[in-house]
UniProtKB/TrEMBL annotation:
InterPro entries for this protein: Fatty_acid_synthase, HotDog_dom_sf, MaoC-like_dom
Source species of the chain: Paenibacillus odorifer
Source taxon at top rank: Bacteria
Protein name as catalogued: MaoC-like domain-containing protein
MaoC-like domain segment(s): 6-82
Length: 113
């Protein structure tokens, strides 16, 4: 299990790199109009972060496939818990809030490099 705070700076950097500048990710007013307290993280940022965190702990593994379903948005300045469960050549991952709400769930296919 790995805990990670999703910062506004990380979201700004991801938005610039991905060119996904949707206001709901960057602007508090746009987030408020959507019924949120703060801007939300990009789903692809969360998926990429999950992969990066896993690979950092398992440097001899290579992700060959991935699948993730998103259940609810996560607001900036929230902590996300990344929980990994290895099963043969698959790694199941569940992202939750500190309160235990599921944000996203999926799996990676991995192989030894």
């Amino acid at each position: 299990m790995i805990k990670k705070c999703i910062t506004a700076e990380a979201i700004r950097q991801y938005a610039a790199a991905s060119q996904d500048l949707a206001p709901i990710h960057l602007d508090a007013e746009a987030a408020a109009k959507a019924g949120l307290e703060r801007p939300i993280a990009h789903g692809m940022y969360l998926m990429g972060l999950a992969q990066s965190l896993y690979i950092a702990e398992h440097p001899t593994q290579w992700i060959t496939q991935y699948d993730m379903k998103f259940h609810k948005p996560i607001e900036v300045d929230s902590v996300v818990i990344f929980d990994f469960a290895e099963d043969d050549c698959f790694v199941k991952v569940i992202l939750t809030t500190e309160a235990g709400d599921v944000i996203a769930a999926g799996a990676f296919a991995v192989k030894e490099v």
